[in-house]
Amino acid sequence: MTNPSQPTTAHVRPNYMLIWLYLFVMTIAEVLLAFELPVSQNLKLILLLILAIWKAMLVALFFMHLKFERWRLRLIFIVPLPLAVILVTTVIMEKVF
Amino acid sequence: MRWWLPDAGSTFAGPIDALFLAILIITGIALVVVEVGLVTFVIKYRARPGRKAFYTHGSTRAEVIWTAIPAVTMVALGLISNHYWVLMKDKKSIPPNAYHVGVHAKQFEWQVTYPGADGKLGTGDDFTVRNQLHVTVNEPIAVELSAEDVIHSFFVPEFRVKQDAVPGMHITAWFQATKTGEFEIGCAELCGMGHYKMRGRVFVHTPDEYKAWMAQQAAGGTE
Amino acid sequence: MTAVAHTSTKAHHAPMSFWRKYIFSTDHKIIGIQFLFVSLFFLLVGGLLAMQIRWQLGFPGKPLPGGGILPESMVSGGVILPEYYIQLVTMHGTFMVFFAIMPLLVGVYANFLIPLKIGTHDMAFPRINMWSFWLALLAGLIMLAGFFVPDGAPRAGWTMYAPLSARPDLSGATISQKLWSISIVVLGLSSVMGSVNYITTIINHRAPGMTWFRMPLSVWALFITAILAVLALPVLQGAAIMLLFDQTLGTHFFDPGAGGQPLLWQHLFWFFGHPEVYILILPAMGMASDIIANGSRKPIFGYHSMVFAIIGIAFLGWLVWGHHMFMSGMNPTLGSTFMVSTLLIAVPSAIKVFNWLGTMWRGNLRFHVPMLNAIGFVSMFTIGGLSGIFMAATPVDIPLHDTQFIVAHLHYVLFGGSLFALFAAIPYWYPKMFGRMMSERIGKVHFYLTFVFYNMTFFPMHIIGMGGQMRRIYDPTIYDFLKPQQPLNRFISYSAFALFAVQFLFLFNFLWSLKRGKKAPQNPWEDNGMEWSLPNPAPHGNWDKTPNVYRGPYEFSAPEAGDKDYLPQYVKLPTDRDPVPAPLPAGGH
Amino acid sequence: MQTTTMTDAMRPPVPAEPGAGVYSNKLGMWVFLASDVMFFTALIGSYIVLRFGMGSSWARPAAVLNVPLTGLNTFLLICSSVSMVKAYAAIADGKKYFLRKVPGKTLQDGGLKFWLLITIICGAGFVGVQVFEYIKLVGHGFTPSGYREGSLLAEHALADPVKYGAGVAGMYGSTFFTMTGFHGFHVTCGVISMLYLYFTKVLPEKYSPQDYRGIEVIGLYWHFVDLVWIILFTIVYLI
Q1: Domain carrying residue C383
Q2: Which of C298, C415, D62, D168 is most buried when burial is the number of CB atoms within 10 A of its CB?
Q3: What is the pLDDT of residues C5-30, one digit of tens each?
Q4: Phi, psi angle pair for D17, to nearest 5°
Q5: Across the interface, do C398 and B162 touch by the CB < 8 Å criterion?
Q6: Which domain CATH number covers D40?
Q7: ipTM of the predicted structure?
Q8: Does A75 share its domain with A49?
Q9: Phi, psi at residue C403, to the nearest 5°?
Q10: How many CB atoms lie within 10 A of CB B202?
């Protein structure tokens, strides 16, 4: 597929349709989970969050091709995440008190 | 004209004023070191013809020293401060025998609710007085703060007490007055155009005086 | 596609119309100068508001001189009304922080200095840069419009604590509170656009040889500042949008009656607000470092630790926002954590101060106006930093929180720090902007008078604050415990008026020198920066051919320099080899 | 974002050390996305904090919102994301065309013009469905300030306060409309930018395997918007 004279796409291109399929299946799983199921609320919550983060990771890694970028570029996207976590956990901790 | 913190009026004033003095000494030394160094250098190393600056990129040893000294000082200061901070602000530090009064802040007044004869808030004999907080000397007082509309801040300078009253939250501040007399309450958080005139008064009584005042209030007396 | 030969940038320098050249310019230098004029205007507005505040605090109940021109809704018989007074404090803070100091440091000097100092032709995205300026101006005008709508300007303090800011029935201002939110959203957009530009430019557009550790500290500081801005401003934008929706759409984010949380606003605001404090001081530190090294004719002492101190301050700056909320009823355990992180931030600040001293040690000090102001910056920033320790120690903060003590502290940092650094930076790069020098004589008089009156104004505020005078109160004399302080309040007011008057010297010097200043030689300060390889003022597109960089920025009095005591970054000595250009990133992936 | 191609003269000078190793437009977009993360942190973080503050009294999302419809909308956005990445792959391979027959295959091979058009259609479809959803919700009485008095939802909430979260309706409306509204705003901006690129760059075939920066940069933005929606969909509609 790749043009041999083209040095810029050095990595193997992922199968985008397969990732699309993953995303699709996981979305269906999420919607099904949201209906009343004989599982505890907490388990549901954890499963839903795992699925959401997994989907988000797929998009970031393959569609935004972060998997194939250098660390210094990845870092730009990673830096705000701990800040977000710090902000939210701190404010919630405050509420617990 | 005062050049220092207001006269001490509560048990908090001792440690706070001492810490203040300690920090003043530490920062004073740092300030003198920096400013004297600055002035000395300005005079001593002013440009003169034929002179060339000493070419250096720095000294690791000097930098380690002036990194370590502030770091150690600051950590020590933090540890000492934390002890008193917990004592003054942690819910668990409120003495169990504290006398509870309610202070409800609204634009622009303090509504002080007293527990009445039974000594408990939230019972039928409670009564409310505007802008007047009457307390007994040498007794821990827990002020249950609430706010009607916006954020206010309950501030008694002599007692070294300051606590925001936030609408939707119930916060308890406590203090123990050490001398009788009349003090002022100010609002330390901008709460609207009347922020400045949100002035209340604290009356610190001896136990007998307080009982008398309470009896008078219970009898429906004014002020 | 790999490396492309450097083509001459003269190619696109066709003559441009006045509009393209000076109004809708995409040249980073013109944009910097536009920011300079606009933010100096807002600085003046903020100063005028401050004078009215000082009049009211010094002479409560006395008619304001010239107050007759103000409408009846603001003054009554010439006497400032309480509702106007809180508009004054709100707008003074807002203008000074968002529209004077921040654009003066970031808008002006990030734009002007970054491409010049790293040796490139312009910003990475010149057109976005232009938009960044116009949006900032728009935001400023929206904010200014607040004074001219019914009910007057916003009335909830520059921190806009909800629910006071969210409910017109409580604050008394309806339209302008919304204008504040809108203006902040627009300003946030402008700042993000600008900062994306600065970061990209510094990462990708450095000239060959300009390695990370050859960048001047001013560029380092502006780089870290841009990172702070790009991550902090959106949080404020988000908060301002929620506030705006509370004000207009009837949402309940900060409305405790419907489960909203007033403290959420404070958390979001200060999560932005503390990095913002460093946005306001880091560029000042960076520029002062450049100027002190120049004035001392010595390399900066401990360049690397200066860089790491900037990074350390920026990193810790994200973890300390809670110290603005010590009295808000927050969890005391969190308070302890915030106290420790706040105290620790004193360490990198101390490193910087001592390294500046180390730079001056055994130097050969030239007291030109920028150097004088930079020394003023160091000494005043030291006071500001040290007074912060009082409030970082939580128990001591109890009597000092929200009093004039914090007002003194923040003015020592923002006026004594940022503004003194600007009084150093403006004359220093003035020749690069306008091709002329500002008057040294007026500059020196201005510095000495400002230094004296500044301390007379703000130092006594510490004492007033210790005495317990709350912030933002309209009339301190109604409190018995504040009455004895009134003479000192009057003294502060007199000093403040003098301080304000002295600033007209600066303004006069600035404007007069535009036309009448001495023609500047190419390198008037005998500095090492890349920008001094260009003529004054720097031409459009800066260099014809991308310059090479041969050494670090602070090679003053280096032995290789021979009989001169400076060795610019762009000078190629016989022993120097040309840097090898890295391959250009490809156009695709 | 700057989406135009720079002329050679405006190209960045060669840095001494490679910067981020990518061209400036892409780097700038990544920095902007980092900034956008913080913007959504403010909105989503507030939602989490406010919801946490309400305890367990939050409304059942499925009772108020139309989850299957939004599930479909999520599917649309995922499709647009994959078509975006296909558009990117197509131009990297030099396929500027719309559709082209490939010998031995029944399906025609899509080029940049095809895949970007699909992306635009899916994106516009998403916005359309969201507008439809908003109209329906407001019709039922769900507004940013809570359940409108006398509306269908208000009646339901009276009958079953737990399921409909009668006590939290105000907070629910506030956070729901703000978060999804700003996401929708982002999608709209993306669609407009893509339309602009489509007519100024894609149709005139200005992109080539040597330079397709505009496509990659708008692609990054688009995937990010998709990513945010994946999070939003889960925490707003499902939990």
Answers
A1: 24-561
A2: C298
A3: 333 344 445 566 777 777 888 899 99
A4: -110, 140
A5: yes
A6: 1.20.120.80
A7: 0.93
A8: no
A9: -115, -175
A10: 23
